[in-house]
């Protein structure tokens, strides 16, 4: 990676985490940081789709704002002001001109090597040095710019100068139009060592042809419409059966109903949040907070539902017994961890969180997921053994199908995590941003498919109570066939009576053994 300026890589990685969630970037006396031989401030990084209409010349800002919103993509600068320290200003006279230079750099991620240079093949520099001035003809004290091979007007460089001993320098409100689809980066750079301690205020507006929604988020807006319709379809099918067989509904089916409702509510809120973001360029804190809270609640209840199903709640055991508190405690802990992670990732401008801080927030969520998976499969294995021992053929068939679906889901999730890590590791500058939305969409699709499987296996019906917990042994065996074999002969009636007596005598022993098994199981868990 010696062909890329190390300092520019560092700055690009910072901008990638900073700008993922805001099309209107607001700066409030943000400080410049020293990177290599330059003072630098990241202004943002977003995927922008090319304008659908004729694109004016770069930097042309003579058109009215009403005309640039029709199918144009652009970056607009509003009220940008740079502030230098009083010590730096006092070094100049009031009548002096050009007493400090700040340069605004806009470039596509593919052209990142066009910023900076390297004398004699050594470490690259953002600012022109005396050696580079001789070798490459750059102007000392300014950013090194190499014209792009596809468009000589790019990268864009705009100059803002301090006058006299003024403490501030104002940038004219300008519009830079985007005529090519790509990941664009904005940096404010100063090569003047006297401008140490420089800060900046103002805002920039980044717009795509269809609105302010960043390019990599735009497909998610349509995706959540599709997901909301999918949940509507699932809701209609489920609730029609739910109302039809209301008297036979199990407690487990009530929980499934709640999860379906939360899923529909979450997808609807996500769409509303993205629509508002697209229209205004800002993320509404209230709506976003509601979305992540409902999402965290839905994910928590979904995981607890799978855990309870795996434990045989309502099927093998009537209640969770002493495990209820443990399950609830795990649910509360997972909800808090998921809520904190989602708030830091989505709400407001908290996407400025550094990499280490985000990893710190991801770890608890990942560890809880791993613990849940282990507990789910351990409980599921025990439930299958119990059903097999009781010869509950119908329930056993349902749980085998459920375990297969769950195993496929876990395998697919692990494989996708590996792909996600590969995707992000091989794309540090987000050049594949147009396909990045799939990373987020996959998890919502998996959750929906698994919920559909659960709804299919435990759909409300007249025989719902047949799946419920019962103390009878072999309650799902073919009793009808056994009775039909006994019909037609007097001996059959006698044998049936004897068989009933044997079952009654063995029933009390089986019930007591079941109770003992559940008590021992509760102690072990």
Topology, please?
Blueprint: H1 6-18, E1 24-31, E2 33-35, E3 38-48, H2 65-68, E4 74-83, H3 86-89, E5 100-108, H4 130-136, E6 156-162, E7 168-170, E8 174-177, E9 182-190, E10 199-207, H5 218-244, H6 251-280, H7 285-310, H8 323-346, H9 355-389, H10 393-425, H11 437-457, H12 479-486, H13 490-524
Antiparallel strand pairs: 1-10, 2-3, 3-9, 4-7, 4-8, 4-10, 5-6, 5-9
Provide keyphrases for this structure.
single chain, 525 residues, alpha+beta, five-stranded antiparallel β-sheet, disordered N terminus, disordered C terminus
Describe it.
The chain has 525 residues and is α+β, with helices and mostly antiparallel strands. The chain is 51% helix and 14% strand. It contains 13 helices and ten strands. It has helices at 6-18, 65-68, 86-89, 130-136, 218-244, 251-280, 285-310, 323-346, 355-389, 393-425, 437-457, 479-486, 490-524, and strands at residues 24-31, 33-35, 38-48, 74-83, 100-108, 156-162, 168-170, 174-177, 182-190, 199-207. Strands 1, 4, 7, 8 and 10 form a five-stranded antiparallel β-sheet that branches. A five-stranded antiparallel β-sheet has the order 2-3-9-5-6, covered by helices on one side. A hairpin with a 2-residue loop joins strand 2 and strand 3 (38-48). Helix 5 runs parallel beside helix 11, helix 7 packs antiparallel against helix 8 (323-346) and helix 7 (285-310) runs parallel beside helix 9 (355-389). It is elongated and about 95 Å long. The model is unreliable at 1-22, 57-68, 349-355 and 471-525 (pLDDT under 50).
